[in-house]
Amino acid sequence: MFVKIKLAMKNLISNIKIAVNDKLYVKDPETSDLGKKIIQNSILLIDEIGFELFTFKKLGDRIQSNESSIYRYFENKHKLLLYLSSWYWTWIDYNLVFSITNINNPVEKLEKAILIVTQNITDDLDTPHINEEILNRIIISEFTKTFLTKEVDEENKEGFFIVYKRVVNRLIDIIKEVNPNYKYAKSLASSVVEGALHQQYIKKHFKTITNFNENDDVTQFYIELVKKTLS
Amino acid sequence: MFVKIKLAMKNLISNIKIAVNDKLYVKDPETSDLGKKIIQNSILLIDEIGFELFTFKKLGDRIQSNESSIYRYFENKHKLLLYLSSWYWTWIDYNLVFSITNINNPVEKLEKAILIVTQNITDDLDTPHINEEILNRIIISEFTKTFLTKEVDEENKEGFFIVYKRVVNRLIDIIKEVNPNYKYAKSLASSVVEGALHQQYIKKHFKTITNFNENDDVTQFYIELVKKTLS
DNA sequence: CTGAATTGATAGTAATACTATTAATATTGT
DNA sequence: ACAATATTAATAGTATTACTATCAATTCAG
Questions:
Q1: Where is the HTH tetR-type domain (chains A, B) (predicted)?
Q2: CA–CA distances in Å: residue B35 to residues A190, B64, B174
Q3: Which of A212, B80, B177, B224 could form a disulfide linkage to B74, CB 3.0–4.6 angstroms apart?
Q4: Which chain B residues are within 8 Å of A196, Cβ to Cβ?
Q5: Which residues contact B130 (CB under 8 A, 6 or more apart)?
Q6: Residue B1's pLDDT is what?
Q7: How many whole angstroms separate alpha carbon A92 and alpha carbon A144?
Q8: What whole-number distance in Å separates Cα of residue A132 and Cα of residue B39?
Q9: d(Cα B187, Cα A210) in Å, to the nearest integer?
Q10: Residue A176: pLDDT above 70?
Q11: Which residues in B lie closer than 8 A to residue A190 (C-beta atoms)?
């Protein structure tokens, strides 16, 4: 029965187009083949060579298209990364909402929510042109850079980070449900979401300062940490 | 008596040159006036315009020196940022070690250590050409970028991040002293050090997902979190 | 006070991050 | 089926960046 409901939800999600803030693109990449190719291959190329070395020229070469055509979809690579990030957090948000629907026990809800934001991601086959596992790797190594810029405040006002903050706010609400008297619900929630990305990064690159191996989930660490902090 | 010892230590620190991994520079900037000017003004300029827009040309203009002269000290701006970061973490490490010397109670040690890595920094007058308050702002907004690159693993092997990891390791040791049975000492310590930077950033830029105002210390949040987690 | 080291000035290169223009191709509406 | 329109491709061009190389000027040290 539970499985059936989950499948029904999954079907639902596969028909919902993930809507991204329209200030992030010049032309919506979801509306054309070239657009989808840009999204799909930018994810692969950024994963391969990193965001710093990624250019629209290289992407054009890879998809046998022209640099200038890519500029018709995105103003610059920073906006493209913001687009990919918004897409990712929207997808996480859907998963979060679905995973806690119909669950009434706050602690159970908390555990499910933490799982969603901390677990290792595998590809979601409902989105053929986007590989979530690879997108997750990009988020782990590149997302932080989207807001560590001189333009944060303007871009924040334009709503480029709302989806990310929405995910954090869902966690905040659940934390408050579990313990309405806890003083630092906001900081705890934002710590978990950002911290999970950092732990996933260092388990690959700074192995001496983490207790996890590359394939481990960091989930248990965060569930224990949050539950103890709220007790 | 305690104050006297602290002052004696402070005098000690003022005579100890903060040594930075010599692979990070071409010529040691501490050995010349121009070198010190480069350090001093790179901190100010990066703080003003951000690391992305910072160039050696602009720095040269500012210190009435030449771009090519700056290249005689640092290979590129990335190495310069790594230098500043190493300097910062070495300075934090000194402060950490001094603040816990002669303290035997592990919990007290823990609280002092967390204070050092989470508190708002003010200028240390023992280092005339380096303004720690501003350097701290740079670390908050730029340090994470030093390791979120495709070259992390090589640079990590070259030891560019040892001082940072040394600070984390000091915390790990103290955490283990407080609770030798806790399974995630490493991840907890690295979470606190990186998390504190993130909380300090968002209290300025993403105010809705933190419980702190710009001038608040995030220390209390972390002390409570760690103590509860270890209990 | 002379030779070595340091710094400054200038020039040059390849790559990046675009903009502009025009041509080629595909799509659509009637 | 065909003209109008939209989309994409190709090419060229610009300012800036991130350097390297060379040589002249200055400083410093024995």
A1: 45-83
A2: 39, 13, 37
A3: B80
A4: none
A5: B39, B40, B43, B87, B124
A6: 46
A7: 16
A8: 42
A9: 4
A10: yes
A11: 198-199, 202, 206, 209-210
